[in-house]
Amino acid sequence: MPSMASAAASSSSLAAIRHPHFLPAKHVSPPQPLTHPLPPRRPPRAQLVRGAASTPRTSQAELRPDSKNASALSAELRRLARAGRLPSALSLLDHLSHRGVPATASAFAALLSACRSLRHARQVHAHLRVHGLDTNEFLLARLVELYLALGAADDARAVLDAMPQRGATAYSWNALLHGHVRRGRGEAAGPVADAFVEMRAAGADANEYTYGCVLKSISGSSRPSMAMATATHATLIKNAFAGAPWMLMTGLMDVYFKCGKVKLAVRVFEEMPERDVVAWGAAIAGFAHKGMKREALEHFRWMVEDGVDVNCVVLTSIVPVIGELRARNLGREIHGFVVKKFGDRKDVAKVQAGLVDMYCKCGDMLSGRRVFYSSKTRNAVSWTALMSGYASNGRPDQALRCIAWMQQEGIRPDLIAVGTVLPVCTKLKAFKEGKQIHAFALRRWFLPNVSLCTSLITMYGSCDCLEYSHRVFHDMDKKTVQAWTALVDAYLKNGDPLTAVDLFRSMLLTNRRPDAVAITRMLSACCDIGALKLGKEVHGHVLKLRMEPLPLVAAELVNMYGTCGDLNSAQRVFNRTESKGSLTCTSIIKAFGINQKHKEALNLFAWMLSNKFVPTKATFDVILRICDAAGLHDEALGIFSSMVQEYKLEASQENFDCIIRLLTGAGRISEAQRFADLKSTLFNLPTPSLDSEQQ
C-alpha cells in the first residue's frame, strides 16, 4: 500500500508541474498592444458581478511553486476545495507532496468533503499516507464514511481494519454506521445491525450517535423490522438512553410509527421527560403518515397550548392534514400564522406550497392561486401543487399549461411534476403533449421509473396508441403487476378484450401475483366477450388468492355472472359476501335486471334501503333503467324524486330520458313535457314538443 501511495503521488506530481499555475514566469509571453487602442468601456455593474463570480481569482500561493509556507498553501487548498475546484486543489496537493511541504488536517478534511468520485477519494487517501496523516482518527473516520457513500464498502472496511486501536473509541465505528445509513437507501438495517454487533464485540462503547444511526437505519428501511426495534429499545433502556433520552426517544417513536405500532409510539412520547419541537413534530408527522388526521390535529393543538414554538417542519406536516380534512377555516388560521411569524423567509417555501395544495383540496382555487403568485420563491414543489390543484378542481387544461409556464420561469419539472401531469394528458387525450413529456422524461433520465412508465402506458392507451403503450411496456426493466394491469386496461378500453385476456395469461406465466385491480379488469373483459368459462377460471384465481371477501372483487364477480346469464352463481357470490355495501347491492340488482327479473330487482332495491345501505348515482342509474325496461312509470317517478330530493344527487340526461319515455308511453304527455322543459333548461338544449312527436 505505501508503494502504491508513493507511485500515485509521484505520477500525479508530473501533472502538477505541467499545470498552468506552476509554469515559470519567463515562459509567459507579454500581451501584444492593439494597433488602434480603444478607450476602455466600463461594463454594467451586473456584468461585473457575474464576471467576478465566473472567473475565480488567482492567489499568490498558486503562482509561487517555490513557496514552502505550509499554512498559506493549506489555506489555499481549503479555498479551492470549498469553491468546488477539486482538480486544481489536487494538482496543488501533488506539488506540495513533490516538494515535501506538509498539508494540514483541516485541508484534508475540506478535500474529503469535496470528493464526489471514487478516483478522487483514493487519490486523497494516497496523499494522507504521504503526508503522515494515516493515523489521524478524524480523517480516517471521514474517509470511511466517504468510501461507503461512494459505494466502496471494501475500501471502507480496509481503512477501518487498519486503524490503530479501533476498538477503543466509538468515533470510527460511528462513521461506518453513518456511512451505511447514507448509502443504504432503504436497505441499511442489515449492514448497520451487523456493524453494531461487531462494534460491541470489539469493545467499543456505543454513544447517542451510535444508537441514532441504528434507529435511522430501522426507520428508513423499506420494511422496518419490529424485532430490531424492540431489541434496540431494550438496549437503550439498559444503557439509560446513552445520556440523551430526548433525541433517542424521538428516534424510537419514529421507528414505532414506521413499524405501524402507534400505541407503542404514543407510549414512548408520553414517557418523555421533556418534549421539544422535534419530538412534537415527529409525533404529528407519525400520525399524519398513518392517516390518523384527527390525532395529528389534536397533538398540534396540545403543542401550541404547551407553549412550544412552531417551526416550518411542523407546519409542513400539519398543512396537508388540514387539506385532507377539507378544514378551510382552520387552514386560513394557519395561513395567517405563517404570514405573521415567517413573512418572506426562504425556508417557508415548502409551507407555502403546502398552503397552495391545502386550498386546492378545499376547492378554493382563488386562495390557492393567491398564495402561489404572492410567493417570491416559487420552485418545482409549488408549481406541482398548483398543477395538482387545477387537475383536481376540473381544470385539466390549466394544469397542462402549468408544465410550460414553470419552464418559462426557468424551473425544470422534476419527477413528481411529470408524474402529476401525465394523468392530465390521459384525461384530455393530449397525445402530442404526452409525447413531448415522454421525450422530456427520457432526456432527464427519469425513465425507466415504474410509476412513470405505468402512467405512460395508460396515457397512450387513452389516446388509442396501443403500439406506443406496448413499446413502453416492453422497454421496462421491471414489469410490475400495475404495469401489466395498465396494459390490459388499455386493450380493454380500445375494444380488444381478447388481447387483454392473452396479456393476463402471460402475466400469470411470469409468476406475478395479480392484485384486486387486475382481477376486476379481467372480470370486466369476461363481461365484454360473454366468456363464462373464462370468468369461472378467474373466479378460481380469486378463491386461490383469497380475494372474494373484497367488496370490489365480489361486486365484479356478481356482475360477471349476471352478464353471462348465470344468475344462481351471482346470487351465491352475493350471499357469501360478508361486508355487503352499495357496490355489491348495485351489482346484484343489475344482474337481476339484465336477466329480466325486474320485480326481484326492485325488491332487492327496497331491501337495500331497509338495511340502511346508501344508494349511489350508479345504483339509481341501474334501477331507473330497470323501470324503463319494465314500463314502471309510477315507481320510476318515486325513485327519481328520492334521488334528487332525499339523496341530493344530480340527475343526468339519461335519467331524464328514462322518465320522459315512461311518461310518454303511459300517455302522461303534460308531465313528460315538464320534464323535457326542465332537461332543456338544465343542459342548455332546445326544447322538444312532445305533442307533435306523439302525433
TrEMBL record:
Compositionally skewed regions (Pro residues) per UniProt: 30-41
Region (Disordered): 24-70
Residue ranges of PPR repeats: 276-310, 379-413, 480-514, 581-615
Transmembrane regions listed in the UniProt entry: none
Annotated InterPro entries: PPR_At4g14850-like_plant, PPR_rpt, TPR-like_helical_dom_sf
UniProt keyword list: Repeat, Transit peptide
The keyword Repeat is annotated on this UniProt entry: yes
Top-level division of the source organism's lineage: Eukaryota
Protein name: Pentatricopeptide repeat-containing protein
Organism: Urochloa decumbens
